[in-house]
Amino acid sequence: MKAFFFLNQAGRMRRVLVAGAATLALAALPALAGPGAHGPGGEHLDAPATAAAAGGAPRVEASSETFELVGHLYASELSLLIDRYESNEPLLEAQVEVESGGLKAVAKFHADHGDYAVDDERLLALLRQPGEHALVFTVVKGQESDLLDGTLVHAAGSAAGLDDHGTGVSLAWWGLALLLLLASLAAGWWWRRRRAALLPNLGGHA
Asked: Same structural domain for residues 112 and 192?
């Protein structure tokens, strides 16, 4: 009876560890989602927010009835992802201009990443200054055009968040999920060895 109880408890612990790893992985998905990513019920996963997550790059979001945009300020560029609001379809090969504090810059489309990058040094120098920066995005695609307003909040002391395409928060979540997964694999290996050692004894009492 003790052997049966032991095997049952070991199997339950392994299932708990695997479930924990899966939960953490799912929790990390919103952090990796693009602008306007939709959940199962059609809701937008990235609710409007202008401040950067703890340890992350300064962030700006803007939306209209046609387009929605999310941008991150990195050391070498302001990276923008733009989607169509209704369908969540990425908007590619559009003409995008960014304006803030009387400065304007054209965003270059990167086909390999599907994003738009602003690398104008004068505009970047302005956005790197701590404080709130109002931005106006002009988006033109064929016969469609739209203006989107957003605010980038660069908190004092958040310069560490300007690492190029840093993903500190997402990596932390994935790191925890990986640790739990490794723990579940180790528990499974130990459980199988223990089970193999106990089975002959169980057979002897049959």
From this structure: no
Taking the C-alpha atoms of residue 39 and residue 60, their distance in angstroms, rounded to an integer, is 21
Q: Which domain covers residue 197, as residue numbers?
A: 2-31+171-204
Distances (CA, A) of 56 to 46, 161, 189, 191: 15, 5, 37, 39
**What are 132's strand-pairing partners?**
153
Q: Are residues 200 and 175 both part of a single domain?
A: yes
Give the C-alpha separation, 72 to 2, whole Å: 57
The pTM score is 0.56
How many residues are present in the chain?
206
What CA dihedral angle connects 114, 66, 75 and 122, to 10 degrees? 120
Q: What is the mean pLDDT of residues 166-170?
A: 47
Are the CB atoms for 135 and 98 separated by under 8 Å? yes
